[in-house]
Structure formats: C-alpha cells, structure tokens
Amino acid sequence: MSQTRDLLLEIGCEELPASFVDAALRALPDLLKKRLSDLRIAHGAIRALGTPRRLAVLVSGVAERQPDLEEEVTGPPVKAAFKDGVPTKAAEAFASKIGGSVADLRRVETPKGEYLVGTRREAGKLASALLPEALAQIATAIPFRKSMRWGAGDYAFGRPIHWIIALFGEDVLDVEIAGAKSGRTTYGHRFLAPGAITITSAAMYVDALRAAHVLVDPEERARVMRERLLEAAASAGGTLIEDDFLIEENLSLVEEPHVIVGGFGNEFLELPERVILAVAKGHQRYFGMRAADGKLLPKYLSVVNTAENPANIRRGNDNVMRARLSDARFFYREDVKIPLADRRTKLAGIVFQKRLGTMLGKAERVERLARELGLLLQLPEPAIMAAASGAHVAKSDLVSLMVGEFPELEGEMGRAYALAQGTGPEVADVIREHYQPKGAQDATPPSDAGALVSIADRLDTIVGCFAIGLTPTGAADPYGLRRACLGILRTVLDRGFDLRLSDAFRAAYDGYGGVSLDLGPGELTDKLGDFFTERLRGLLEAKLPSDAVAAALPVAADRPLDARARATALAGLDADTRARVGEVFKRATNIASGAPAGEPTPPRAEDHASEKAVHDGYLALAAKLVDLRRAGDYAGALREVASFAPLLHRYFLDVYVMTDDIPVRENRLRLMRAISETCATLARLELLGERKEA
C-alpha cells in the first residue's frame, strides 16, 4: 500500500480585498483537484484556507508516488503503418511514443479498419518531483478581478507576494512564485502576533496559526465571529440582529474577529428602523441590536481585526455612524414634507427603458394592470382598491432623497412615508410588498393587494422587453426577466391565484397602446407561454417528480395553479404505477394517430373478451371523469385511470389492433383515439415514467 502525506501551499501577500479572498478560496479546491488528477496522484480531502494576508490550500492523504501506468494505445491504420511489409515512419513514431519497438505492436480489427495497437508502460514518479511545478502553476491560475505587477518581473497576482510555504508532510518542496522561494516560515496576526512562525509539518499549520491569532479556516472564523457577536450583544444588554450577509462580508476582512460595541444616540431612533440598519449595514458593515421588547437599540456591533485600542476604534466608528445618521435624518425630514402622490410626476424624469418610456408611464401601466388582474381573479373589491391605491404611489419614493442615497430602501421608504403621511397600512404595505420576492429565498407578498401589484410590475417589464426583442440569452439577462418570471409564478402559487397567463399577457400588452412594439399580441403570447412554462417546470420539479410535471404542463401550463394540482395528483401515484400507466398510454396514443374520423362502436360478439372489457371500461371511465374533472378531483380521476390501465395492458396482449380486416382495424383505432383523447384532458399520460435526461 502506498504511503501518503499531507500537502500544504500557503501564499503570503499584502492585504487582499475581501472579494479577492472569496474568489480565490472558491477556485483553489477545483484547481488543485484537476492538477492532481492530471498527474495521477491520489489524494483525500482538499481544504481552501485563507485570510486577507494569505491564501492556502491543505490536502490530506496525498500519495507519495504515482501508480505505475499500463494502458492500451491505438496507433495508425495498418495500411499507413506499413508499405510493402516495411514499417513506415508512422509505425516507428508510434512505437517510440509508447516506449517500445515496432515488433511489440499488434494488429487489431476495428469498425474503422485494421489498426496498430501497443501497450504503454510507465513507472510511477515520486509526487515530490511533480508537485513543485504543479503548485506554481496553480498559483498563476488563481482568479482575481484585477491582478497587479510589481518590481522588475512580469508576474501578476492579486497583491505583492511576500512569502511561500510548500510542505509535503514535513519536507519543503522547491517552489518559486514571482521571485519568492518556498520555505516553512509564515507570520502571525499583523498586530497581535507579528513574528515569524516555523511550520514543521503540513498537519500542524492550522493549529500553529490559531495560536498566533490567525483563524485561517473560514468556517472556524465565521463560527468564532458569530459567538463573539452574540456575547458582545448580551454584554451590552441586547440581542444580536443576525445577518448572514454581514457575516460573509466581514469574514474576509479579518484574520481573527474581535467585536466592539458602539452607539449613536437615542435622537436618531426617530428614523425608521430599516434606515438605521441600512446605514449600519450598507456603509459600515455593522450589526444591529434589539432590546428585550424587540425595539432597536441605539447601539451597533462592529467586527474588527484587532483587540488593541478598542476605545479609539469605538470613538472613530461612533463619529462616522452619527455623521451618516445625521445625513439620513435630514433626508427623512425633507422627504416626509412632500406627499408621495405629489412626487409621482417627477417619475417622468426617470427613463424606464428608452423604447418603453419613463417610470411614470410604467407606474400608470402597473396601476391599470393591477386592477385588471384583480378583476380576472375575481378578488374582493377592497383588495383591488388597495392594490390600485398602492400602485399609484408605489414608485414615488424613487425620487426621494433617501432612496437616492440608499437605493436598497426603495419600497421600504415609500411605506414609511405613506404611514407618516396618514395612509392606511393596507395601502402602505403594498408599496413595500410589490418588490417581493427580491430573490429565490425571499418571501412572496403576504397580502392579495401586494401580490397584485408585484405581479403587475414584473409582468409589465417582461411583456415590454419581449415585445421589443429584449429576450434573455444563455449568457445575459440584463433586465432580470427570468427572475421576474419566477417571482410572478411563485406569487401566483403561494397566493393560490388561479390566473390564466395568456389573459394576463394580453392585459399587460394592452397597456402599451401608445408604444411602438415589434411583436403582435398573438406572437408575444406564444413566446411568453414557452418562457413561463420552462420556469414553471423548474419550480414544480423542485418538489415533484419530473415525469409528473412533464405530463401535467402540456395541458395546464397556462394556469400554473391548475398545473401544480395536476402534477401533485400524478405524483400521488407511485413511480411503478406511473411507469405502467405511461407505457400503455404511450402505445395507445401512438396507435391513435392513425385513427379515421368517427366514434368507436361496440365490439362484435365474436371479438376477444379483452376488447369488450376495454370498450366497456372506457365508457365507464369517461363517465366518471366528467364528474371528477368538474369537481377538480384530479387525484380521484387519476386513480380511475390507473385502475383502467391494466385492462388496456391486457388488451394489447390479447388483441392485434392492426388486423387486415379494415373495418375492425379502423374501429379499434377509433377506440384508441377516444381513450387517448379522453384521458389527455387530465394529462399527457404517455409521458409518465420517462426519466429526465441529465
């Protein structure tokens, strides 16, 4: 059994930006895995480690040598390898390439003709001889948004390199990167333990740095950061407002996280909570705290890279925080003086899209479309009125001072200003909710009124962009149309809106009456139907079997809620049952394509019993399906179909449909068509049981 060792590469450099560290740590494992695979060097787990001052990768269980290689290699065709029985240069070159002689080669017959084949044998090399060059190559392949050159050389890296460690077990590998030569010396925390550290083996690297106030493992650093934030919040009399984004943002800014509690004064609590948290988060990357009653405390937590002089750090942070909040308070006081409805006309100065007009035009279309969608869905009048009123001012905060400074507060500030100006919460909430969902993990709007405006806003964008040819490509979706489509579908499904998409597309299209568009409503509806169907497929397949989704969509994609109900009912049949149903209906559907016009007649007395059983079973099934479909009981309908499927299977075993007796054959084809068409009103059953290709 071959021996193994741990492998360590550390590149020490000047402080890297957080985004550089994150990108490098994502890329390093795959870079090293591929290189080791190319070298045929076996290995265990690969860990990417790093801080602003160092990038490292640690690999466990790296084999000390390659395995010996013995492989069959196909060479040139025999007719090219020999001329008049004498080996040509092609044969000699091939033999030399695999380390043998022409006499060692064999002739093998292949579908393409007779070829020469030889065995290439190669003794495995020591990993210690192969790894230095591989590690140097990996360093050059680390992706940085922008690299820099320094000194007299042409080597580019994210920041100037100061030291390198390359250890294979306890042995130093001879690696040179940008003029820096490898050794076993690294350095601790710049402020708390700046001295040199000797790493005697790869296995002790993480522990040695931890002792020098460097938590080089990002997972450990994140865990310690969260623990210290919780402790600091508790010591300050509050509870931490946890935020994974801020954890990630601070993670690559420090080598060891330390937490400082700061404050900004009670006078700033007049600002909406969301504004204070946006100032802390957006500009300073600070965490907020709440009191026991859930109210925001006039305090914050900052993650810093040193425990030295915390009072000085706190004083500076407080000054910056108060200055930022003073600006925000000025913006808020000025903004709240002007009613949102009065701001709306200023939206004419913001271009939505150069061919589709201004944000004012979009606001007018969204307000109209929200009403239309409410009527299509037959929602209660109060919900439709709240949606229309909210839509009327939903975009007005875009021209406020606060949103100009903090774009991420759009909707939040509109709601805050509306409430401050006396608008009822059912309308004010629409302003915030219509931006939901903001991403795949964000919740959809919690009210019908907010959902109507959310759908209308996204649908207006999608319809307008598609109508002028701005459709997403494989590489680009600058208007976020895929995300907007998913937002609509998620909202429709979450709210239980039985919306017919084609009707919604036409309603949105009508809103562009004064705009020159490239597509007519029919062509646009077809394109959008395909676009929405594919997004709906992905949403449903995340929770339901792909064959059930594939069978439901062709008959119900225009009504997403109905499509989900059908797919869910299909998924209620176990996989084996779906496969059996799919098999017999695929055969019936294929046969039915050749059926002549007309209805099937009852079988003759002399016909096989299976033929009578299927005919009678079909009549009974068709009668039951009428009532079950009318009641929307897809599960019950599909259970009836599943019970009928064995009769059809038996029929195909006992009866030859394509008999030479033409009248009999045509009647049997009509029966297959009747069965197929009747059951196709539920789903494309012939697609059941088909496995989705990877």
Automatic annotation (TrEMBL):
Its EC number is 6.1.1.14. Pfam families: tRNA_synt_2f. It is found in: Cytoplasm. It is an enzyme of class 6 (ligase). GO terms for biological process: glycyl-tRNA aminoacylation. NCBIfam families: glyS (TIGR00211). Belongs to the class-II aminoacyl-tRNA synthetase family. HAMAP family: Gly_tRNA_synth_beta (MF_00255). Tetramer of two alpha and two beta subunits. This is Glycine--tRNA ligase beta subunit.
